[in-house]
Amino acid sequence: MARKTARPGRTLALLFLAIAIMFGGIAFAGTWKPELGLDLRGGTEISMTAKNSEGGSVPKESLDEAKSIIDQRVNGSGITGGRVTTEGNDVIKVSIPGTGKVQQETAERVRQTAKLRFRLVACSPQKPCGGGAGGNDPGSMIQQDPTGGAAPGTSPRAPFAGEKASPSEGESASGDASSKPSASADADAEKKSDNATVKVDDAVKFMRQPPTEWATKYSSFSCPAPGSDPIEDVPGQPLLTCDDQGAPYLLTPAVIEGTEIKEASYGIPQQQANYVVTLDFKSDGNKTFAETTGAIAGSGEQFAIVLDGKVISAPTADSRISGGAQISGDFTQKTSAALANNLKYGSLPLDFPEEGIQTRVIGPSLAGNQLTAGLWAGLIGLILVVVFSVLYYRAMSIVVIGSLAVAGAATYGMVLLLSETAGVTLDLPGVAGLIVGIGITADSFIILYERMRDDMREGRSMRVAVDTAWVRARNTCLASDAVSFLAAFVLYVFATNEVKGFAFMLGLTTIIDVLAFFWFTYPMTKLMARWGFFNKGHVLSGMDQRAIGTVDDARPGTTTLVGGKA
């Protein structure tokens, strides 16, 4: 079978088409400047004073854990350039670049305490107290995740059959005052009990026969006005609360804490049109969740999901759910992503009262001339590379300059797109990473051209030398870029946030260098090898006999293919 003929012109056309599409998207978004980081632009600073929900001083371990969770919320997606630090024994400071809409949304996500708990619905507008299951919201359903905890859209598996859990022996038969601890019980033990979840059987009994005192409280309960202080959510106590539509609920004590969630994601499953949030529990949480959904399976009774004291969903369950679960309802991409992120990054181990949260605008930590100096450094480095290429490779430097231009355009376009879609910011370490990328791009064509010259010294023509040199140069460049990308990856994973910007930009420029090398440098060099100016060894071509080191073999007055006639 004949070997497929390479078409460098088509490859170049596809490359320029891809770049044109990218910049078309940028023009549509209307963003032509990248978002700058804290050091170059300033932004929003949130100061949060922690409070120990169990009283006493704030444990250092809990403060460090809260800092880690907040850092994941701020920098969990993209290189936002956020900075999370602790101050004193109870203060966490969060600095977010910029002051726009995206930054405000990030600030709101940071301020949210994300105390998630799972409770059963005892009374609601659809279910009178003690009146059995009523007509609950038919659009809200919690069900077995058919993907087995994988991301939405993957291959399904058969759901578990419905079954109910049997009550345990020896447990209290009612939720009235007779089941409460005696007045002589230790106060610390009672407080510990209030901060713990209850057994599923106790919650089910409370749900189906609410104590009279709680039913009376529910009948006179009215939802707080918007902007009021959040309702206090004590896990071991029943909860009177509302949902976003202002519907009141009486809920049982919590049966599962949000800290039992192992993983959370969102997406549109196969053969569906709406977003869902997928949950996967840890071992203990999975066991309790299966027991709870088994107890209400097929009864129409509701299972409330409570976030920061507010009901965000009150679905039913048509079967016992073991393993991953899907929450479906009136979700949009934004609301499902926000819920999944809060669940994924867990509940904060400390309380942050609203009166202890302060927000202010801060200026850049570096003077404006620092960015100017960085840009000048990059420009000088670029000019030196171009000057060296022109002096050493002469007309072949057209490919060198073109490769740098293509790589630069692709890098700038990607930074703009990532700033708009993923919140990526460009700080001074990031600028340094882009400058280092200039050297990586220069390495690629130097390796290719020197391989070509070696082959031409052995008697091959320039047309043949392009292909034979490409095989060896390609492997060398891939190995070199792999090492650079691995270094960037290690820095990104293990380094502090101040270095992540450098690592991200270094990795980005390394990937773009590979694409430019394959899609521009090689096909452009192959095209130029077909022109007589180059393959006949013009003195200005950069591929003449003097340049490749075979001038002693040249015969004055003759014109031959450089390196040979093949």
Automatic annotation (TrEMBL):
Molecular function GO terms recorded: protein-transporting ATPase activity
Record bears the keyword Disulfide bond: no
Listed GO biological process terms: intracellular protein transmembrane transport; protein targeting; protein transport by the Sec complex
Membrane transport protein MMPL domain mapped to chain residues: 353-557
Start and end residues of each Protein translocase subunit SecDF P1 domain: 64-122
Biased amino acid composition, Low complexity: 161-186
Domain SecDF P1 head subdomain residue range list: 240-349
UniProt entry tagged with the keyword Nucleotidyltransferase: no
Alphabetized UniProt keyword annotations: Cell membrane, Membrane, Protein transport, Translocation, Transmembrane, Transmembrane helix, Transport
This protein's GO CC annotations: plasma membrane
Major location (coarse): membrane
Annotated transmembrane regions: 373-393, 398-418, 430-449, 470-495, 501-522
Superkingdom of this protein's organism: Bacteria
Bilayer topology term: Multi-pass membrane protein
Family matches, as NCBIfam families: 2A0604s01, secD
Complexes and interactors: Forms a complex with SecF. Part of the essential Sec protein translocation apparatus which comprises SecA, SecYEG and auxiliary proteins SecDF. Other proteins may also be involved.
Similarity comment text for this entry: Belongs to the SecD/SecF family. SecD subfamily.
Protein name listed in UniProt: Protein translocase subunit SecD
The organism of origin for this protein: Nocardioides albertanoniae
Name of the encoding gene: secD
